[in-house]
């Protein structure tokens, strides 16, 4: 498959040069502080797109919501987002689809000396929640609590705020525990904070054994069908870059400044958690696991997170084959 795609890409590039035509552009929306920026830097450092049959253009995004707006407006061709949103858009007639990027899903953290050892210990405590009331991890944590006879929505004092502020509040003792995104969790772990549960742990304890991506590349299916060879080549380059950052210390050192910290321990923890999110396989079993998660989220969020559809929409997941 790889050799056929590369051969097609070289043929496309040769044809474009011979005809004088400009290569196709892929406009990719990128958060300046996101891990996608790490992979793009690794691609450039390793010349992974040097002979590509397309031109990659990056558009800097302020946040994930800005990326969704840009994708819907046609200002970019592709962003990194979540499959819950994709399904909701498809239920409204949208043509968006999703290809896995990472399974890293954040975690629930407490201070190293905290007396909080189990979910039951959260009752009566202040819990910081990144992402707001409709955060996916918060909904899944509530589902896990209900399995243990705990209504966490009623029994904890919830504090919603931006992740950096919540990290500060946990450090100052203004909140007792924090449910946050994996990058911010990794920074706290590097400082000695204890992870009570990871996002992946929550899913496993809910009885879902397959790894399910938390984030993925999102684009229009019609666009993907028109640029399939270019998109496949980009995905392969992205996978090569990701593997190199996990397997090669030299490749990691070249992009380490993008972690926005000079602390080696923090950089190492960010690398560890990033690499744990590497998706090794994705297929029908993973799709069925995602459907299980969707049904749980639909029941808990009163349709606010998933939309009105009770089922994950057909076409939510894109196949590169």
SSE string, helices as H and strands as E: HEHEHEHEEEHHEHEHEHEHHHHH
| Bulk shape | globular
- Kindly report the average pLDDT value: 91
Radius of gyration: 21 Å
The N- to C-terminal Cα distance equals 8 Å
Would you count the extended β strands for me?
10
The CATH topology label of the largest domain is D-Maltodextrin-Binding Protein, domain 2
CATH architecture of the largest domain: 3-Layer(aba) Sandwich
β-strand percent reads 15-25%
Query: Biggest sheet, open or closed, and with what strands and sense?
Result: 5 strands, mixed
Helix content: 40-55%
Q: How is this structure best described in words?
A:
This protein is 47% helix and 17% strand. It is α/β, with parallel strands linked by helices. The protein has two domains: 2-103 and 212-300, 3-Layer(aba) Sandwich (D-Maltodextrin-Binding Protein, domain 2), CATH 3.40.190; 107-205, Periplasmic binding protein-like II (D-Maltodextrin-Binding Protein, domain 2), CATH 3.40.190.10. α11 packs across α13.
């Amino acid at each position: 498959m790889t050799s056929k795609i590369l051969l097609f890409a070289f043929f496309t590039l040769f044809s474009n040069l011979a005809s004088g035509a400009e290569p196709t552009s892929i406009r990719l929306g990128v958060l300046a502080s996101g891990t996608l920026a790490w992979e793009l830097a690794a691609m450039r450092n390793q010349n992974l797109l040097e002979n590509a049959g397309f031109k990659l253009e990056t558009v800097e995004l302020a946040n994930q919501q800005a990326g969704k707006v840009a994708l819907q407006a046609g200002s970019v061709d592709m962003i990194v987002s979540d499959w819950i949103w994709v399904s909701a858009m498809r239920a409204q007639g949208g043509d968006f689809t999703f290809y896995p990027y990472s399974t890293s899903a954040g975690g629930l953290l407490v201070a190293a000396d905290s007396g909080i050892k189990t979910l039951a210990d959260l009752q009566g405590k202040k819990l910081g929640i990144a992402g707001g009331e409709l955060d996916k991890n918060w909904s899944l944590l509530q589902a896990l609590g209900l399995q243990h006879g705990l209504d966490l929505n009623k029994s904890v004092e919830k504090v919603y705020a931006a992740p950096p502020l919540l990290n500060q509040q946990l450090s100052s003792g203004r909140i007792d525990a924090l449910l946050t995104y994996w990058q911010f969790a990794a920074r706290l772990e590097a400082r000695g904070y204890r992870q009570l549960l990871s996002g992946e742990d929550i899913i496993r304890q809910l009885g879902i054994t397959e790894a399910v991506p938390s984030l993925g590349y999102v684009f229009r299916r019609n666009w993907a069908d028109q640029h399939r060879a270019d998109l496949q080549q980009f995905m392969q380059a992205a996978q090569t870059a990701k593997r190199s950052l996990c397997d090669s210390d030299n490749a990691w050192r070249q992009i380490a400044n993008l972690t926005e910290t000079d602390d080696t321990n923090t950089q190492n923890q960010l690398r560890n958690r990033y690499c744990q999110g590497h998706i090794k396989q994705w297929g029908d079993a993973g799709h069925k696991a995602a459907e299980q998660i969707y049904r749980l989220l639909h029941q808990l969020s009163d349709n606010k997170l998933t939309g009105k559809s009770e089922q994950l929409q057909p076409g939510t997941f894109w196949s590169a084959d």
